[in-house]
Amino acid sequence: MRELDEFELRKFVAPEFVFGFEARKLAGRYAKNFGARKVLVVTDAGVMAAGWTDDAIGYLRSEGIEYAVFDGVTSNPKAAEVEFGADFYHKEGCNAIVAVGGGSPMDCAKGIGIVCTNQKSIVEFEGVDQVEFPIPPLICIPTTAGSSADVSQFAIITDTLKRSKFAIISKMVVPDVALIDPLTTTTMDAALTASTGVDALCHAIEAYVSTAHSPITDLHALQAIALVTSSLVRTIRKPDDVLLRGRMMLASLEAGLAFSNASLGAVHAMAHSLGGLLDCAHGECNAILLSHVIAFNFEFAQERYVEIGRAMGLESGGVAPEKALSALRAELARLSQAAGTSYSLSQLGVSRGDIPGLAERAMSDPCIFTNPRQPTLKELEAIYEQAF
Amino acid sequence: MSKLSDTDEMWRAQREKIIGLGERSLRKTYYPELQQKLDELERFRALLDQSNDFIFLIQAATLSVIDVNDSACRQLGCSREEVFSWPLANSLPEEALARIAALVFSGHGEDTITTQLIGRTGTTLPVEITMRLVTFNKTLYGVAVARDLTERKRSEKALLEHSRMLHDMELARQIQLSLLPLVPPQVPGVVLAGSCIPATHVGGDYYDFYRREGDVLDLVIADVSGHNIGAALMAAEVRSVLHAEVHSFCNTGEILSALNEILFEDLSQAGLCITLAYLKFDALTRTLTYSNAGHPPALLSRNSRTPCRELDAEGLILGVKKEVFFEEKQIQLQSGDLVLLYTDGITEAENDVGELFGCARLCNLLRGMHACRPGEIIDAVRSKVEQFTGTNTMVDDVTMVVMKVM
Question: What is the pTM of this model?
């Protein structure tokens, strides 16, 4: 059976992407070629302050394309922000979207696109393949090396009423083009560099052990793991090293290609649940949970975790499974320590009373369905407990 | 293999969908929507092409045609592509072009221009152009809808002509009526009445009285074939000839012979003929002399008991032959006698089953009216005929003359 499993049906969807220094400068040309007349630029205050929004607008203007800026996106974008953005899009008479920023503006831009053409509230698109009509042309200029929303079929939106995050998974929300310019990440501070980097690592690890992984996603996942391991800490120390920034950006892209197609696992299911409750940084939540989830999953994907260890530079030949697990967890802890993302749930402000609710939400998150081990509610609660 | 639990089954299904094997796992494509829009557009174009109006979309900045419907292409005699390179100045007179340019310059509103559309081969068509300015994607356009005015002009003209003709015909009717005796002459010993109602504005019926010296009265009734303007003109001619000639002859037969000879050329040329009855009454002797040119014979009713008598005499319809002899007959009238002269509009009046009013019915009617005055008799006959046909619009001219001997 296992031999046949190797060629189970798999699909691989990736947008057109341009990777490299100054890729962002193609924004105007792409917008024009997509038939854009007026573009809604979706961004956030941090990216505006760093100057990347104005930078992108300049390329639109030089092609004579009009624009309207929506910079009201907050981290963990809220359903209300999506609805507001969609209204704004219509009011301004836009016909295309350019997202400039990290995961939040990009996910929000996807949500705006969905609402614009599907004419329903964003909360109605929760789940897989719920988007009926294609969204307007969407150009993404990522400014973090982690989320990879610019290449993924995921959009994570926060429902503030329910205090939870929900995932929209649809090939319809894959952007039309990602202009991935590592230079945009040079303005990230150490904390953001660290948390987004760890996010990319989590994407790669979860995609690699996912039950929906494929030979193609495996290649990208392992490459991403190796790149983050070798470059993250050095990048934090030398934030202006564009070569290191480029490697982290490539790691993020490859992790994105892997997880968009192989999906994720319990770390993300549980992190989404946490982010919805606390509005905390997605990368931080992942970092806290990763090691504990690996311990829980280990015996169900032992060989794959060993392979991950090898990609991180760990000795693998003839090592006993328990040894391999502890070595992997130790390496992750070391990396986390060095990057400065070593936290616990209690530090995020979670109380033990929140755990049953968190676990329940995580059980219904689409990411859970590709976790190598099918957990029970109690088991998820136990993992949250361990992360305290 | 162990049986999968419900949870396992749900997990498997969700995983399949996430992998992208769900039925609706579709990468973004605008093509289905595009196809649908194109279909809609094609349908809409068919709609415009079906219009009889000529529709032009004009780019305001250049005053050039950038879209047209099929009707416009057909009218201009160009293909769609040719229309686009065909300057508007070639299709419209200068004034119309100036109006369009002025509207475009003003930047808003609409204008309705009555002008001509010039085809490629120089053909012109009267049109009314309604032009409105619209903005699509920040570009100003004019939508010009030109409507063919040919039919409207034609019907306007026809209407005008019709009303002019009606006016002329009314005038002719007035003239024709004025040619009939206004009131019958006063002759001792008889009471007279006459009436002529043309079926249309004018008719070919005619009656008249001529007073001679010594209380002698001539009565004439005539029916020119047809009841149109030609018949009316001929009736007028009959009247003129009679007025001129009546005193040159004493005998009724001679009068008819002369009349026939004079009118013969005109009648043959016009392809018309006339029936005519001519009677002469001497009030002093109460003798009635009469001749007939193929006209329904006058009816004589002596009393209510005896049948009417037809006062017929040999003679050919006028206009058939140049020289004709007309027999002349005489009868002695007495007090109470009624003489009715009429045209076939009465006896040939039809009811809805195709039955004719006929002479017998007319005779019986006349016999029963010895107590009435001539005018009343005429009214009674007319109302009986109307009753019989069920309508008061006659298909033929209806003329009667009644003489009552006192």
Answer: 0.71
